[in-house]
Design brief:
single chain, 219 residues, alpha/beta, Rossmann fold, six-stranded mixed β-sheet, 6 helices, 37% helix
Amino acid sequence: MRDATYIAVLLDRSGSMESVKDETISGYNAFIKEQKEAGDNCSVSLVQFDSQSIDTLQEFTPVKSVPDLNGGTFQPRGMTPLLDALGKTIESTGKSLEAIPEANRPDKIVFVVITDGQENASHQFDKSRIRQMIEHQSHTYNWQFVYLGANQDAFAEAGKVGFKADNVADYVGAATADAFRATSSNVASYRRTARASSLNYSSRQRASMLKSDSRKSKA
């Protein structure tokens, strides 16, 4: 397998994200900018989800071709079908990877979930099924899963579906930029080193994400 990374970003588009809409757009764009600077050996899928639809805006797109988000391409609405978004994206990613010749498949797979609301709108997947899927992909294929939860108990929510605590972080809306910055730095480090521990949030990063005035924090 070649030295390449696939990043699936699952971005909550429910109405609860309205209060941090601008910060989320700029944070995501900064995340993509850093991944572009980290090298071309990366592809990205962007999945936005709400109770009206689960939409794949980018799918295995070369990182250098991934466009920025704007107010037209990120419009919060509805509720939060997090489990359905995860289940569908895990399944579609598996099928896409199977279709790629083994020699050309990315050897590092990272899922990044950003959500501001607790699960309240899924119909096809439950927590037990998602936990099984995440644990299977993690243990069998070394997929990595990262979870950012704004204004909620991210550890409790993510832990129920199999995310490792080291890869889970809470953040307050005012520190959205810090949350994206920390996550982007960790993902870029993982791309360089292939060490899963690179995705662990440090105590300093966690502190910066919980400050009400993020301008005073350092990621």
